[in-house]
Amino acid sequence: MINGSLFDMPQPVPVFEGKPFDGQTFSQPRDGDRLHAQLSRVRDVMRDGQWRTLGAISRATGDPESSVSARLRDLRKDRYGSHTVARRYVERGLWEYRVGGGE
Question: Residue 22 and residue 2: Cα distance in Å, rounded?
Fold first, then answer.
Protein backbone atom coordinates (compact mmCIF):
# COMPACT_ATOMS: atom_id res chain seq x y z
CA MET A 1 0.00 0.00 0.00
CA ILE A 2 1.30 3.43 -0.88
CA ASN A 3 1.40 5.71 2.15
CA GLY A 4 -1.65 7.93 2.08
CA SER A 5 -3.63 5.89 -0.46
CA LEU A 6 -7.39 5.74 0.07
CA PHE A 7 -7.82 3.21 -2.70
CA ASP A 8 -6.49 0.27 -0.68
CA MET A 9 -8.82 0.91 2.24
CA PRO A 10 -11.49 -1.73 2.87
CA GLN A 11 -15.22 -1.05 2.76
CA PRO A 12 -17.46 -0.42 4.68
CA VAL A 13 -16.19 2.78 6.20
CA PRO A 14 -16.42 2.55 10.02
CA VAL A 15 -12.64 2.03 10.31
CA PHE A 16 -12.38 5.01 12.65
CA GLU A 17 -14.38 3.45 15.47
CA GLY A 18 -12.42 3.32 18.70
CA LYS A 19 -9.84 5.83 17.50
CA PRO A 20 -10.33 8.76 19.83
CA PHE A 21 -10.46 12.40 18.93
CA ASP A 22 -8.90 14.87 21.31
CA GLY A 23 -8.81 18.55 22.08
CA GLN A 24 -9.62 20.90 24.89
CA THR A 25 -13.35 21.13 24.11
CA PHE A 26 -13.87 17.55 22.86
CA SER A 27 -16.33 15.37 24.76
CA GLN A 28 -16.57 11.72 23.67
CA PRO A 29 -20.24 11.29 24.67
CA ARG A 30 -21.27 14.52 22.95
CA ASP A 31 -18.93 14.59 19.93
CA GLY A 32 -17.46 11.12 19.28
CA ASP A 33 -20.12 9.58 17.01
CA ARG A 34 -20.67 12.84 15.12
CA LEU A 35 -16.98 13.40 14.37
CA HIS A 36 -16.37 9.77 13.37
CA ALA A 37 -19.34 9.99 10.98
CA GLN A 38 -18.01 13.26 9.51
CA LEU A 39 -14.58 11.74 9.06
CA SER A 40 -16.06 8.76 7.22
CA ARG A 41 -18.15 11.00 4.95
CA VAL A 42 -15.20 13.22 4.06
CA ARG A 43 -13.01 10.20 3.40
CA ASP A 44 -15.68 8.62 1.20
CA VAL A 45 -16.12 11.77 -0.89
CA MET A 46 -12.36 12.26 -1.27
CA ARG A 47 -11.65 8.59 -1.98
CA ASP A 48 -11.59 9.16 -5.77
CA GLY A 49 -8.51 11.42 -5.64
CA GLN A 50 -10.24 14.39 -7.29
CA TRP A 51 -9.49 18.01 -6.41
CA ARG A 52 -12.31 19.73 -4.47
CA THR A 53 -12.82 22.97 -2.57
CA LEU A 54 -14.05 22.91 1.01
CA GLY A 55 -17.38 24.15 -0.33
CA ALA A 56 -17.69 21.24 -2.75
CA ILE A 57 -16.83 18.73 -0.02
CA SER A 58 -19.27 20.44 2.32
CA ARG A 59 -22.09 20.21 -0.24
CA ALA A 60 -21.31 16.53 -0.88
CA THR A 61 -21.22 15.58 2.81
CA GLY A 62 -23.73 18.01 4.29
CA ASP A 63 -21.13 19.06 6.87
CA PRO A 64 -19.95 22.65 7.51
CA GLU A 65 -16.80 23.79 5.71
CA SER A 66 -15.00 24.30 9.03
CA SER A 67 -15.75 20.70 9.98
CA VAL A 68 -14.59 19.44 6.58
CA SER A 69 -11.32 21.34 7.01
CA ALA A 70 -10.81 19.78 10.45
CA ARG A 71 -11.56 16.29 9.15
CA LEU A 72 -9.04 16.74 6.29
CA ARG A 73 -6.45 17.59 8.95
CA ASP A 74 -7.51 14.49 10.89
CA LEU A 75 -6.92 12.28 7.84
CA ARG A 76 -3.25 13.31 7.96
CA LYS A 77 -2.88 11.91 11.50
CA ASP A 78 -1.33 8.48 12.08
CA ARG A 79 -4.39 7.17 13.92
CA TYR A 80 -6.63 7.99 10.93
CA GLY A 81 -4.38 6.58 8.23
CA SER A 82 -1.55 9.10 7.66
CA HIS A 83 -3.17 10.10 4.38
CA THR A 84 -1.55 12.57 2.06
CA VAL A 85 -3.80 15.63 1.83
CA ALA A 86 -2.54 17.91 -0.94
CA ARG A 87 -3.78 21.43 -1.51
CA ARG A 88 -3.44 23.87 -4.36
CA TYR A 89 -4.28 27.52 -4.68
CA VAL A 90 -7.10 28.41 -7.10
CA GLU A 91 -7.63 32.18 -6.74
CA ARG A 92 -8.61 34.94 -4.31
CA GLY A 93 -8.00 32.82 -1.20
CA LEU A 94 -9.72 29.71 -2.57
CA TRP A 95 -7.94 26.37 -2.21
CA GLU A 96 -8.67 22.88 -3.51
CA TYR A 97 -7.80 19.66 -1.70
CA ARG A 98 -7.07 16.11 -2.79
CA VAL A 99 -6.54 13.04 -0.63
CA GLY A 100 -4.02 10.49 -1.90
CA GLY A 101 -2.06 10.70 -5.11
CA GLY A 102 0.75 13.09 -5.93
CA GLU A 103 0.84 16.51 -7.50
Answer: 27
* Global confidence as pTM: 0.79
Cα distance between residue 6 and residue 33, in whole Å: 22
Task: Please say whether the beta carbons of 28 and 53 come within 8 A.
Answer: no
CA geometry: angle 19, 24, 29, nearest 5 deg: 50
Q: What is the pLDDT of residues 35-64, one digit of tens each?
A: 999 999 999 999 999 999 999 999 999 999
3-class DSSP state for residue 94? strand
Is residue 68 a contact partner of residue 61, using CB atoms and an 8 Å limit? yes
Does the domain at 1-103 match CATH 1.10.10? Answer given as yes
Instruction: Give the chain's mean pLDDT.
Output: 85
